[in-house]
C-alpha cells in the first residue's frame, strides 16, 4: 500500500509564467489505497505567495499543506 499521500494544495507555474493552484481531494477505497481527485482553479497568480494566500482565504489551507511538484 502506498503511504505517499499528496498534499491537498499544489502550486505550480504554467507555460505563461503565472502560478496556478490545484486543489486535491484524497479519498480511500475499501483496501485503503488513496484515490486523488484534482481540480485546477481558474485563477492565475503572479507569485506563489499570492496563490497560497488565495488557498488560505478560500479553502482554509494550513502551513505545510502545499506542494510545488
Question: Spans with pLDDT under 50 lasting ≥5 residues?
Answer: none
| Percent helix range | 10-25%
Name the helix and strand elements from N-terminus to C-terminus, one letter apiece: EEEHE
Number of distinct beta strands = 4
Mean pLDDT across all residues, rounded?
90
Q: Structural class of the helices, strands and pairings? A: alpha+beta
Based on Cα principal axes, name the global outline: elongated
Count of DSSP helices? 1
Q: In whole angstroms, how far apart are the ends?
A: 22 Å
Strand content: 35-45%
Largest beta-sheet details: 4 strands, mixed
Radius of gyration in whole Å, from Cα? 13 Å
Placed side by side, the strands forming the largest sheet appear as 3-2-1-4
Number of domain units: 1
Q: What is this structure's SSE topology?
A:
Layout: E1 9-13, E2 19-28, E3 34-45, H1 48-59, E4 66-67
Parallel strand pairs: 1-4
Antiparallel strand pairs: 1-2, 2-3
Report on this model:
This protein has 69 residues and is an alpha+beta fold. The protein has one domain. The chain contains one helix and four strands. The protein has one helix at 48-59, and strands at 9-13, 19-28, 34-45, 66-67. It has a four-stranded mixed sheet, covered by helices on one side. The chain is elongated and about 40 Å long. The two termini are 22 Å apart. The model has no long low-confidence stretch (mean pLDDT 90).
